[in-house]
Amino acid sequence: MKPAPVTSALTSARTVSPRTPDTATDSLSGRSVASAISPRKIIHCDCDCFYASVEMRDDPSLRGRPLAVGGRPDSRGVIATCNYEARRFGIHSAMSSALAVRKCPDLLIVPPAMDKYRAASRQIMAIYREYTELIEPLSLDEAYLDVTDATHHQRSATSIAAEIRARVAATVGVTVSAGVAPNKFVAKIASDWNKPDGMFIVKPHQVDAFVAALPVSKLFGVGRVTAAKLEQLGVRTCADLRDWEAVELHRHFGVFGQRLLELSRGIDSRPVRPDRERKSVSVETTYPIDLRTLADCAAEIPTLAAQLDGRIARAGAAAQIRKLFVKIRFADFQRTTVECMAVTPTVPALLALLEKGWARRAQPARLLGVGVRLVDGAGDAQPDLFAQPIEDAPHATC
Ligand SMILES: [Mg+2]
Fold first, then answer.
1. Residue 62 neighbours by CB under 8 Å, 6+ apart
2. Which of 63, 179, 342, 351 is the most exposed place for a label (fewest CB within 10 A)?
3. Ligand 1: distance of its center to the CA of 47 in Å?
4. 92 Cα: distance to centroid of ligand 1 (angstroms)
5. Residue 3 contacts by C-beta under 8 Å, 6 or more apart in sequence?
């Protein structure tokens, strides 16, 4: 591998320590000089249409036809995952199953089998752990791996990623796409580049050009509304963003302006956090035009609830829900959150929370969010001894 530049504006701050010195050692700090200045090696691993892949693995007759995993079209079901044949019809996760079937009448929707997906996920994570302890799972099928200190394959992150992909395919029977880069943000985008069953490497000296060409909508935290606002300002790509002064971006986007500038330069020093625990799952929408009345807000709740269902399914978190919440950001940017004990995010319960939150200010809303809080240690959940008995919870209105 080509030696990294000694200093680079794109080199993220090292955040992982302690480390084994691999070359010279700084006599004052005792830390490796090379490790203090060399870029990190992050792999973002993302299984391809994970739930659908597991189903096709277990029943090969499902291969080659449009397949989705999700809820029933005749209830309020949503698509959790679909295979690539289904994606050709415009079907995607979080879409209502009813709409998916309209787009593709031949679509076969199978109900989720979470135990099976969890078992496959455990096998996959065990393979990752043979290369590094620094693993941050984002969901059952997605994780960041920091392999900076991994000694396999002469320290080549590219070779490690290739071997991981081959081993998961051979042992678990599903394919993983991987992105390799010096930080999480670039690695995550890279894993999407050659999907499915692909890999994309962004070496430290390539980060600058790779990020410059990205549309701003690819940046972490840039949703539809922010992208539209940037577009209005004439900013389409990260290269466009780099021309802006921090103070100007701050004026338009508040503290997020600084983050935008960093991301547009490929800078992301967030560490891979192996101890990360998911505490909540939520979705929110900022509306291009404020929702003026409570009825306007209430009309949005079923859509948000359906998106939330999809996200909960993908996170495998359905069994860990202990509270619901609704968040409202009003036109004056004041924010309020209302929550209640519950184990299922039903539309009536969310509407009751909305009504309560709305009453606090009773003015137009620019953002609505709905979400669930999870029991501690979700993913490997223990019952929460301090929560209300669940019999009381499902339709609680606080
Ligand atoms: Mg995936």
1. 55, 56, 108, 110
2. 63
3. 4
4. 12
5. none
* Residue of 142, 248, 300, 339 with catalytic role: 142
pLDDT tops 80 at residue 173: yes
Q: What DSSP assignment string belongs to 339-365?
A: EEE-SS--HHHHHHHHHHHHHTT-S-E
Q: What pLDDT is stored for residue 391 in this prediction?
A: 25
Q: How far apart (Å, rounded) are the C-alpha atoms in residues 239 and 254?
A: 20
User: How many beta carbons lie within 10 A of that of residue 111, not counting itself?
Assistant: 11
Whole-model pTM? 0.66
- Whether 142 sits among the annotated catalytic residues: the reply is yes
For the segment 283-323, what is each residue's pLDDT rounded down to a tens digit? 988 888 999 999 999 999 999 999 999 888 877 788 889 99
Domains and CATH numbers, the chain: 35-201 (3.30.70.270), 213-264 (1.10.150.20), 280-392 (3.30.1490.100)
CB 43 within 8 A of CB 158: no
* C-alpha of residue 240 to centroid of ligand 1, in Å: 30
Q: What pLDDT is attached to residue 254?
A: 86
Residue 159 CA to ligand 1 centre (angstroms): 21
Q: How confident is the model at residue 37 (pLDDT cuts 50, 70, 90)?
A: low
Whole-number Å distance between alpha carbons of 213 and 236: 9
- Contact between 17 and 40 (Cβ < 8 Å): no
